[in-house]
Amino acid sequence: MSKSQIAYHWIKARIDDGTFSPGYRLVFGQIAQELGVSTVPVREAVRRLEAEGLVTYEHNIGAQVAMADESDYQHTMQTLALVEGYAAALAAPSLPGKALDEAKGLNAELTACLDNFEPSRFTALNRDFHRVLCGTCPNPQVLDLVNRGWNRLAGLRTSTFSFVPGRAHESVREHQNILDLFDRNAPAGEIELAVREHRLTTLETFLAWRHP
Q: Cα–Cα–Cα angle for 172, 107, 90, nearest 5°?
């Protein structure tokens, strides 16, 4: 492969796996140094990624990883808020203590991430947290809808935490509130509402950032 092809595949792989999250600034010099090439093939690779819609270029800002389609993200989050809240409420009565302990451990990891924040890692741990709480949902169709929502978010390559890192602090506090509800065997309606509002607050934070 040519140097520009190598640079293209290297950058694209990091966009695909979330290392370069939406809004991440692509500094040509840093990438060139990492790959041991000049900035010319990096620039060519970025132009190709821009043509594919994976990268945007703005004057005085430079090249950045493109954001997902806003309306698609909004619709996915709204749907996920409904089905995930219901799935968590259905799962709560049969959730093993071991699974609840795992969720608490994941929230502790999320809290530890706040000091040296990495949006891609936080997003992955956040998904694991929610996956554990919904894991024993007895309705396979509801759980399938939840999984589809999570997979769609991953395909959109977006995370509110990339744009509004402060949301991460609020998120772990809301997780703790949800865990407390599970701990005290709260009514299903309370759990459903807490999980739904948690997801919708993330969406509202993103929209407030996009449209100040």
A: 90
Topology classification of domain 70-210: Four Helix Bundle (Hemerythrin (Met), subunit A) (1.20.120)
* Whether 26 contacts 7, CB under 8 Å: no
H helix or E strand, kind and range, residue 177: helix 166-183
Other CB atoms within 10 A of residue 62 CB:
13
pLDDT of 157: 57
CA gap 133, 145 in Å, rounded = 15
Burial (Cβ within 10 Å: 0-12, 13-18, ≥19) of residue 80: buried
User: d(Cα 95, Cα 136) in Å, to the nearest integer?
Assistant: 6
**Helices 166-183 & 188-210 angle (0-180, nearest 10):** 180
Residue in 161, 157, 159, 183 with CA at minimum distance from that of residue 170: 161
Domain 3-65 architecture: Orthogonal Bundle (1.10)
pLDDT tens track for 35-81: 999 999 999 999 999 998 889 888 888 899 887 778 888 999 999 99
This prediction's pTM: 0.75
